[in-house]
Design brief:
Chain lengths: ~110, ~110
Amino acid sequence: EPEVTQTPSHQVTQMGQEVILRCVPISNHLYFYWYRQILGQKVEFLVSFYNNEISEKSEIFDDQFSVERPDGSNFTLKIRSTKLEDSAMYFCASPAPGGTEAFFGQGTRLTVV
Amino acid sequence: GEDVEQSLFLSVREGDSSVINCTYTDSSSTYLYWYKQEPGAGLQLLTYIFSNMDMKQDQRLTVLLNKKDKHLSLRIADTQTGDSAIYFCAESQLNSGNTPLVFGKGTRLSVIA
């Protein structure tokens, strides 16, 4: 099965610090997504990215968040000034072009202290 | 907005069948998915069904869709201890694979040896 790779697997950061979560999506995929899962809650959509720009974003994705594809392979999610409530599992996903299957990475567990 | 609901817990004995249920509200849902999440791991796509189908079978997994009632179920035959995980139901509206998934809260399946 194709793989989406996320790093780091776990990150602990102090409130107010910036964090960058990284994803290497499947190489020929065109759409990329970030989702988050607060402990014990639903997996929630954050943002989708297509052709080097944001395609769609949820109300969770406020000015503290940004996404980039800096080098054509990595896909990053940046949180500028982390809050305690940003603690969650963050998943990167990419669907196959024209396909129906969305492949998810293993996730990054972000803990804000 | 769209909503996906699942019961939170299910406990079965090894060798029995498990049935995990899901209801959704969006009648324009096109694809419905089941994902599996093992402890500390990412989301693994198990199977999906297109909304014009009412059943799909894949080895030990059977998906049943009642579009009229907006009810989806996942049956796991001969449940094994390795099936213990959280199972997420998810839906999307378009068939191009480029719309965000809407997830349920997940059903935690515990398999008793």
